[in-house]
């Protein structure tokens, strides 16, 4: 910023100097032309022959003033050249006037005033070195004229001192003027820089506001698309539930018929497989509808006191067939007295999802552990397996919508809503679910439920002694 200010100050000073030289060039050309025409008129038309000696000198001066005027802006050096021409012209004009003047000393005194004027103008329009050079040449010319006029040495010394004092005073005044000009130029440069900075900030603010507006509009469009997609999905799921229910009823009837027949075991196995697949699809549809209700806060929890140990055991039995397919064993470690006031249907589906997820990601021949414990009185349910661990950067993302557990490179069926549903359901109960590091296990999903003192009180008072679980 300092270098830029200095550059602008220098440029402003040069501009002022060029402007002053331009004015001086105009005055020289105008004055030379006027005096040339006047001398010609007095010489040719008035019969004053002594004016004829001035014509050649004024013609040369005017001819030199023309290019100085034409190139007054781009060539500042013409200012110094014309200042020297001014001194030469005054000297020769006064020298021509001395022989014909009845009072030569007066002519020499008049030239002192002219030289003083030239020194002052040179100091104001030229550099300090050039100004003092003009003062020195003017002093020499003035002394020569006074000597020719027969002036004594005393007045000559006084004239020299006067011209030098004029040069010093003009230079000092010019220095103060330059300081003021520099201050003004610095203030103007600072104002321009501040103005540019303000304009840049204004443009950046407008650009940021435009980008923010575009991002907001894009976000609104994405939100509308997401809502439209969810509405369409819910409509499809809702409309498919009735036909799927009819299919399940028909499969139940077919299963009973095959069981009564007893002669076609292969058909019975096929019917059982179809029924399991249909029930899985029905569960996925119910899950999608519950996800939408949980997100919108429309799902009312049907809380009841639940013995969590019995719930864990029921889920273990329910998941046995899937575990057998993967050659995975399911172990349970729980305190049978652990209880909680939860929505039994939702919490059972949460545990089924977690156990099924653990089985699918467990290595063949390994085991899955469902552990139930109390942490400062609050129930904690954890599901462990020793499959490929979840990458740390995905510990939070696995509980988001449509995130599927394919970090091990294996494509699995599903919509990516299982763990998302689990998080919504546990959050609705006032608890939390997370991926935690547990020694001895590669992956551990942990549910922490809130402390329910009312349930513990009911258990202590023996007002509940069992939990009615849905049929496996």
pLDDT < 50 stretches: 453-472
Q: How many individual helices?
A: 12
Number of domains: 2
The total count of strands amounts to: 7
Distance between the termini: 79 Å
Average pLDDT level? 78
Q: What class do helices, strands and sheet pairing give?
A: alpha+beta
The shape is: rod-shaped
Q: Tell me about the biggest sheet?
A: 5 strands, mixed
Helical residue percent band:
55-70%
Query: Which strand-content bin applies to the residues?
Result: 5-15%
Offer a concise description of the structure.
The chain has 472 residues and is an alpha+beta fold.
What brief labels describe this structure?
68% helix, 12 helices, two-stranded antiparallel ribbon, 472 residues, single chain, alpha+beta, Heat Shock Protein 90, 2 domains
């Amino acid at each position: 910023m300092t270098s830029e200010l200095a550059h602008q100050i220098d440029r402003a000073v040069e501009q002022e100097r060029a402007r002053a030289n331009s004015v001086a060039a105009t005055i020289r050309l105008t004055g030379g032309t006027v005096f040339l025409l006047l001398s010609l008129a007095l010489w040719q038309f008035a019969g004053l022959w002594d004016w004829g000696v001035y014509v050649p000198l004024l013609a040369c001066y005017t001819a030199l003033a023309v290019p100085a005027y034409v190139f007054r802006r781009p060539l500042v050096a013409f200012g110094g050249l014309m200042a020297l021409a001014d001194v030469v012209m005054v000297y020769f004009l006064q020298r021509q006037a001395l022989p014909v003047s009845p009072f030569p000393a007066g002519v020499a005194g008049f030239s002192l005033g002219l030289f003083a004027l030239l020194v002052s103008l040179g100091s104001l329009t030229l550099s300090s070195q050039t100004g003092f050079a003009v003062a020195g040449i003017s002093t020499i010319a003035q002394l020569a004229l006074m000597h020719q006029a027969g002036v004594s040495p005393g007045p000559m010394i006084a004239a020299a001192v006067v011209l030098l004092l004029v040069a010093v005073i003009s230079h000092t005044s010019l220095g103060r003027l330059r300081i003021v000009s520099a201050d003004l130029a610095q203030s103007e440069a600072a104002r321009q820089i501040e103005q540019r900075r303000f304009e840049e900030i204004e443009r950046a603010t407008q650009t940021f506001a435009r980008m923010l507006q575009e991002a907001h509009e894009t976000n609104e469009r994405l939100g509308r698309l997401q809502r439209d997609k969810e509405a369409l999905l819910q409509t499809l799921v809702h409309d498919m539930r009735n036909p799927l229910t009819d299919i399940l009823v028909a499969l139940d009837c077919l299963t009973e018929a095959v069981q009564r027949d007893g002669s076609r075991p292969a058909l019975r196995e096929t019917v059982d497989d179809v029924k399991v697949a249909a029930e899985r699809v029905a569960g996925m549809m119910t899950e999608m509808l519950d996800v939408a209700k949980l997100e919108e806060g429309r799902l009312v929890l049907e809380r009841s006191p639940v013995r969590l140990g019995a719930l864990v055991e029921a889920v273990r039995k329910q998941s046995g067939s899937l575990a057998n397919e993967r050659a995975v064993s399911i172990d349970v470690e729980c305190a049978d007295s652990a209880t909680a006031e939860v929505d039994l249907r939702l919490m059972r589906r949460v545990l089924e999802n977690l156990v099924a997820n653990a089985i699918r990601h467990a290595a063949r021949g390994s085991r899955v552990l469902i552990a139930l414990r109390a942490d400062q009185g609050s129930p904690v349910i954890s599901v462990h397996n020793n499959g490929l661990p979840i990458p740390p950067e995905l510990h939070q993302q696995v509980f988001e919508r449509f995130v599927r557990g394919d970090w091990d490179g294996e494509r699995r069926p599903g919509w990516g809503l299982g763990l998302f549903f689990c998080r919504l359901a546990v959050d609705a109960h006032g608890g939390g679910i997370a991926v935690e590091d547990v020694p001895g296990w590669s992956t551990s999903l942990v549910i922490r439920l809130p402390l329910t003192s009312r349930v513990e009180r009911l258990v202590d008072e023996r007002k509940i002694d069992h939990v009615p679980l849905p049929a496996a």
